[in-house]
């Protein structure tokens, strides 16, 4: 997974897969989903990202699976 932020256009791109997109669906005026040929989401585009989120910081946290009892 890759997340790119383009300051010049205030656009965030979340790439979830390397599969080529074949369709784009508009969720709202500023959020778009790109789908592959199987209908899986391959990327999410957020226009005017700084208005919707705090783009100054990105935090990734992996939560490990609980150990079996």
Would you kindly provide a brief summary of this structure?
The chain has 69 residues and is mostly beta strands. Helices cover 6% and strands 41% of the residues.
Task: Explain how this protein is built.
The protein is mainly beta. It has one domain. It is 6% helix and 41% strand. It contains one helix and five strands; from the N terminus they run βββββα. It has one helix at residues 49-52; strands at residues 2-6, 11-15, 23-28, 31-35, 41-47. A five-stranded antiparallel beta sheet has the order 1-2-5-4-3. Strand 1 (2-6) and strand 2 (11-15) form a beta hairpin. The chain is flat, with a radius of gyration of 15 Å. The N and C termini lie far apart (32 Å). The mean pLDDT is 91.
Helix content: under 10%
Derived structural class: mainly beta
Number-wise, the strands total 5
Low-confidence stretches: none
How many domains in all? Answer: 1
H/E topology pattern: EEEEEH
Spell out the blueprint of helices and strands.
Elements: E1 2-6, E2 11-15, E3 23-28, E4 31-35, E5 41-47, H1 49-52
Antiparallel strand pairs: 1-2, 2-5, 3-4, 4-5
Key terms for this structure?
about 5% helix, five-stranded antiparallel sheet, mainly beta, single chain, about 70 residues
């Amino acid at each position: 997974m890759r997340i790119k932020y383009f300051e010049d256009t205030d656009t965030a791109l979340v790439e979830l897969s390397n599969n080529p997109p074949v369709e784009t669906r508009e969720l709202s005026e500023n959020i778009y989903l790109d789908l592959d040929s199987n209908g899986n989401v391959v990327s999410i585009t957020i226009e005017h990202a700084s208005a919707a989120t705090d783009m100054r910081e990105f935090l990734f946290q992996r939560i490990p699976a609980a150990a079996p009892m």
